[in-house]
Amino acid sequence: MIEGFLKQKGNIVKVVQDDFPNKDSKVLVDVYYCGICGTDYQKYIGMDTVSEWGHEIIGKIHSQKDGNLVTIRTTYPCGKCMDCNTGHFEKCQNWSRLNMNGFANQVCVDEKSIIDLGVKKTDVVFSLVEPLYVAHSLIQHVHPTCDAVYSVIGNGTIGLLTAFLLRKKYEAEVRVVGRRNLPKRKKFIEEIGASYYSFDDLEKALKDSNKIIITTPYHTIPNILKVVDSYSFVTFNGISRENIIPIEMDQWHFKNINIWPSFPHPQTDFSEEIKIIKKNKELLRSIITDFYNLDDIEEAFKRLTDKKQDCIKILIKCNEVKK
Ligand SMILES: [Zn+2]
Ligand SMILES: [Zn+2]
């Protein structure tokens, strides 16, 4: 029996389900932990009406108690188009999406959704596989090179993981712009060898930096474009209450700025992300700052709403953890 929580008509409601369509062709996965993503928060505050949420899952296939830890991918490239055939899955136009509810003790999904993490022992760090994939596709959108100076705007999970990847893969100079007085984020940024700027120093941070990755809400974009260098590459993956933002076209036009929005990013096998996580477990685990029981999911969202909190990634304990 699946027990979980959905967002329905503005409320978090408990759901119990004991039958599923096409059950025989699907796989039942016991969910151990599920991270709260920005897109879940979007649903929590009522910006999105899809009631399924929770995709940053780790768990095990129900019928294989001694099996490996698995995660689940929720978007798929078609695998057939020209972009897919040339390895540019991030550009696939025919991608599809799986809607599932990860804030539950179990999920019932197609086999193709399941990704084997190659380890038996439960380690919460693997719940960062999917966010790390998102960070990876953000980087691809600014045409990365080793000699560039990167600015990452925003110091939430995606911002921090993007900065981490840029340092790891390109050893490039990375500047992170974010809110002040958040010691856990500051510590992570120092540990990866990036530098930390507050929003008041945005202009300083963007000076001579022409690869800009924005992970903050859309309303920050006009201010960023004001101080961005000419010929910059800009991508964004923020969540925002506002869909329409005013941009002075002169800023875009005369500065020749390349802006490539970074969604969707159809997911492949996460193999590179899994490898990177295995090599950097301790450091990456420090991004996970809070745990809540499944029954207390509303408390977890309330904590995220309080912007003074130094909490980065919250994981929901969806099941008793089996070793
Ligand atoms: Zn996510
Ligand atoms: Zn395709």
How does this model look, in words?
This protein is α/β, with parallel strands linked by helices and 323 residues long. The chain folds into 2 domains: 2-132 and 264-317, Medium-chain alcohol dehydrogenases, catalytic domain (Quinone Oxidoreductase, Chain A, domain 1, Alpha-Beta Complex); 142-259, 3-Layer(aba) Sandwich (Rossmann fold). 27% of the residues lie in helices and 24% in strands. The strands form 5 sheets. It has a 6-stranded parallel sheet with strand order 12-11-10-13-14-15. Strands 3, 4, 8, 16 and 17 form a 5-stranded mixed sheet that branches. 38% of the residues are buried. The model has no long low-confidence stretch (mean pLDDT 91). Residues 77-78, 80-81, 83-84, 92, 94 line the site of one zinc ion.
What are the defining features of this structure?
323 residues; alpha/beta; Quinone Oxidoreductase, Chain A, domain 1; Rossmann fold; 2 domains; five-stranded mixed sheet; 11 helices; 17 strands; 27% helix; globular; binds zinc ion
